[in-house]
Amino acid sequence: PPPPPPPPMPPPLQPPPPPPPLSPAESPPSAPWAAAPWVLATDAFAPDYVAQCAAAANASADGLLSEALKLRADACGLDPETGEPSGVGTEFWRFGLVAGLIALMGTCAFLAVAPARRTPISLEEAGGQAPLSLCASLRATFRLHSFRVYAAIMFLSQCYMSHLLTNISLYLVYVVGIDVAQVGFLMGAMMLPVIATRVLSLPLYLWLLQRAHPASVYSVLRAIEAGLVVLFFLLLKAEGNAEGGPQMSKLTATAAAAGAVLGVTQSPNDIISHMLMGWAIDEDGVERRGLRREGMFYACNGVCQHLSEVVVALILASYGWAGFDPKQCPSEQPASAVTAIELSFLVFGPVVLALLTLLGFAYPIRGERLARLKAQVAVLNEDRSRRITERNVSRPASTRGTASTRTLAEVVFRSRCSRPDEVALSEQLTTSSVPYSEPASEAGGAAASAEAVSAEAPDKNSSSKHAVADEAGGEEDAVADEAGGE
């Protein structure tokens, strides 16, 4: 007989309908942090990030995230349930202190406004010249070889320091292997010796800079720092990767020693930079017969220094290219990312310091050129002081506008701080001086005097004679007018 037909297939099972949504009062949170919808809305903590960090910390994800939210709510002064402001957070006073310091520095800057407006001599030396544009200012400053070398020094120095201060925490966490919570303590252990040694070593450098060229001192310090930086970073890595994990006592001692060395080598940098910049400005002022353009030089130098932020951004981008993922825990970062962070400190930093060493030795204003520049500036300062004194004592207009009759040799020879090389140079300089003719801009006095002299004395060779008398260490101008006098 034929086989019986197969039994009919049962109908497919339908999934049960979803339960109706519960009201917020009927749905208790499944975790302590689920009661903070403001956190989930901002996506501050990704689930995979929380799970990985919890596994690395051997803790539950709920407990870890709840603790993190509580800390952030306390720091920002927020209610942990709603995220609304609920008072002053723990970070308020820290940011308030920084804001107060910035406001104080900005207020002190206004103290320079009033003296800057009381410079009639400088305004006359400008000769009515309008301020230059940015491109024209860059051309005017970078035509000087001394300023080009100085700007390169400041640019590389800013790149090195910005990278060191911005990314050293990444080195401590991902290369040395310390916990994120210990970064602040280790940074404090490093910065306190930096401040102390910078202050304590200043007398030594003030004595040294009177006997050696500041650019040479700068080069030697950068060469020393280049060797010691690699040593200390390698020591930190070795102590962090030692058996049993990093020991904070040894890491703190190494960080403090590194900070002390950094403070000693960085202590005279501000003094040296202003000396090198000042000599570049002096050379430009001598070429322009006394007109100093400090603002333009410092502004152009600021443009170059701010470009260093681009370099720091590129360094951070290189970490990303190497596989660095800020959402991953330190233990989950790829080896290429850790290597990129390590090489930026062990290779990039020493290379920049080596370039700074070479640039310091390449600074051109030194030796006889520096001595001649100081002598020329002394003549200009003497002439400016004379004209300012004439204004203060309201001397007759006919005696103004005469050039300084003192020679470079006299100025250098009479200087209290003349060095032997400057005195030797002053003996070679004979009668060179920097003449200056003051513009006739005060109530037409100079013009009126010129008309009176031309009317009474047609002969150009018989206008006046100047006799210079040096009495009791000072100089007085005695002017005899053969055309009848005033």
Describe the structure.
It is a single chain. The C terminus is likely disordered. The longest helix is centred in the N-terminal third of the chain and has 32 residues. This protein has 20 helices and two strands. The radius of gyration is 36 Å and the shape is elongated. Helix 8 runs antiparallel to helix 13, helix 8 packs parallel to helix 14 and helix 13 crosses helix 17. A hairpin with a 2-residue loop joins strand 1 and strand 2. With 486 residues, the chain is mainly alpha-helical. The chain has a two-stranded antiparallel sheet with strand order 1-2.
What is the topology?
Layout: H1 37-42, H2 47-56, H3 61-76, H4 92-109, H5 113-117, H6 120-126, H7 134-142, H8 145-176, H9 183-200, H10 202-208, H11 214-240, H12 248-266, H13 269-287, H14 294-306, H15 308-321, H16 335-361, H17 368-393, H18 408-414, H19 420-428, H20 445-456, E1 465-471, E2 474-480
Antiparallel strand pairs: 1-2
Helix pairs in contact: 8-13, 8-14, 8-15, 8-16, 9-12, 11-12, 11-16, 13-17, 15-16, 17-18, 17-19, 18-19
Quick synopsis:
The protein has 486 residues and is mainly alpha-helical. It has 20 helices and two strands.
| Arithmetic mean of pLDDT | 74
Major sheet: arrangement of strands: 1-2
- What gross morphology would you assign? elongated
Oligomer: single chain
Q: What is the radius of gyration?
A: 36 Å
The helix-and-strand class reads mainly alpha
Task: Specify the biggest β-sheet.
Answer: 2 strands, antiparallel
What is the H/E string?
HHHHHHHHHHHHHHHHHHHHEE
Helix content: 55-70%
Our measurement of the CA-to-CA distance between the termini, rounded to an integer number of angstroms, reads 155 Å
Low-pLDDT runs: 24-43, 399-486
